[in-house]
């Protein structure tokens, strides 16, 4: 995620330089002090939690095709009745969180970034992205779409961008400081962040709610162990009062089998002309999501009508000129604050076995 200055930027799997309210294990002391504050993992002590955290997410509440799904639905309904009596503790408006149906595709797309398969022309795209903080309309159009099959979750981005830029080629570089796209995929007790820039460079991190770390067995994975130098405590970016408290972030997690492709419709890093934009195509294997699915034993791949929480965002190296109130981070569903790391604000993605 790029420096917030007066208008932060974030882009996910949490961009701007914040890339999603980004945090890096990398030393970024050469940047502005406020950028360091936002992007460095928070090492303060765990504060006392006074509110019981809301059940999150509600991944299987829509299921109705099995006896255990009825039990799950009843439990979810009971939890919901309990939670609605409490004050909503998150900065996004829960009534405006976006919902989307991801359809099954019988033919897997070729992951090259061009999005030229017929299925991508038939799929329903997201609403136009809005500002991460204010929810206001943005100067350039950005949309995303989701498909799936029994092997992969497929994500596509369409970015309108007149001056496509990209320079970072090192893995886990601060991609939020230039044009990037981000995806956050949430499980019950953990979530994954993915970023990619116009050169196809990747940034990945995996976050675990510290209250669930031991009981959830996450310490069995060397990539998540506290002794790993790439594992840091993290307390969000612009929202540091999450009811669940601190997270442990690992910058040593690489999503197994992940495929990515980027296509630039124009001339990269040449501002002598105007580009049309750039597109991103991603395939996340379900087999790589075992640590996300572990806590609530959600099936991989999902079943028909299962609902997950997934976030989609874009970060830019600029802000629209005043009087626009542009934070530099744009997203499918606004978070109400400069922070991508709030799974309760992620869109609801329901998986359908129906095909287009």
Tell me, rounded to a whole number, the average pLDDT.
83
- β-sheet strand percentage: 25-35%
Shape: globular
Instruction: Report the major sheet.
Output: 14 strands, mixed
H/E series, N to C? Answer: HHEHEEEEEEHEEEEHEEE
Give structural notes.
It is a single chain. With 356 residues, the protein is of the alpha+beta class. It has a domain at 33-43 and 74-203 and 256-355: Sandwich (Immunoglobulin-like), CATH 2.60.40. The chain is built from 5 helices and 14 strands. Strands 1, 2, 3, 4, 5, 6, 7, 8, 9, 10, 11, 12, 13 and 14 form a 14-stranded mixed β-sheet that branches. A hairpin with a 3-residue loop joins strand 5 (180-186) and strand 6 (190-197). The longest helix is centred in the first third of the chain and has 17 residues, at 67-83. It is globular, with a radius of gyration of 19 Å. Mean pLDDT is 83; it is low at 1-85.
């Amino acid at each position: 995620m790029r420096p917030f200055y007066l208008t932060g930027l974030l882009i996910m799997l949490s961009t701007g330089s914040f890339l999603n309210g980004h945090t890096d294990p990398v030393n970024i002391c050469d940047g502005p002090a406020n950028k360091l504050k936002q992007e460095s993992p928070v090492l303060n002590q765990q504060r006392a939690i006074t509110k019981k955290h809301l059940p999150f997410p509600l991944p299987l509440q829509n299921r109705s095709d099995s006896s255990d799904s009825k039990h799950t639905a009843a439990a979810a309904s009971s939890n919901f009745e309990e939670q609605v009596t409490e004050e909503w503790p998150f900065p996004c408006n829960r009534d405006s969180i976006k919902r989307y149906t991801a359809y099954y595709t019988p033919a897997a797309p070729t992951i090259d970034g061009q999005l030229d398969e017929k299925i991508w022309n038939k799929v329903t795209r997201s609403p136009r992205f809005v500002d991460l903080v204010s929810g206001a309309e943005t100067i350039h159009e950005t949309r995303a779409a989701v498909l799936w099959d029994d092997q992969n979750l497929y994500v596509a981005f369409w970015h309108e961008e007149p001056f496509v830029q990209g320079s970072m080629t090192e893995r886990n570089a601060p991609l939020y400081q230039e044009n990037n796209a981000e995806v956050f995929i949430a499980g019950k007790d953990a979530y994954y962040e993915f970023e990619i820039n116009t050169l196809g460079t990747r940034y990945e991190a995996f976050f675990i709610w510290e209250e669930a770390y031991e009981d959830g067995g996450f310490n069995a994975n060397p990539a998540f162990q506290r002794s790993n130098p790439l594992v840091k405590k993290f307390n969000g970016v612009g929202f540091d009062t999450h009811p669940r408290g601190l997270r442990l972030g690992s910058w040593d997690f690489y999503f197994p089998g992940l495929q990515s492709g980027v296509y630039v419709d124009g001339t990269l890093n040449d501002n002598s002309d105007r580009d049309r934009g750039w597109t991103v195509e991603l395939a996340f294997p379900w087999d790589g999501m075992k640590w996300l699915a572990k806590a609530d034993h959600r099936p991989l791949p999902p079943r028909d009508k299962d609902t997950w929480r997934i976030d989609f965002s874009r970060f830019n190296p600029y802000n629209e000129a005043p009087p626009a109130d542009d934070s530099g981070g744009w997203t499918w569903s606004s978070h109400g604050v400069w922070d991508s790391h709030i799974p309760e604000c992620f869109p609801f993605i329901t998986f359908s076995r129906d095909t287009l």
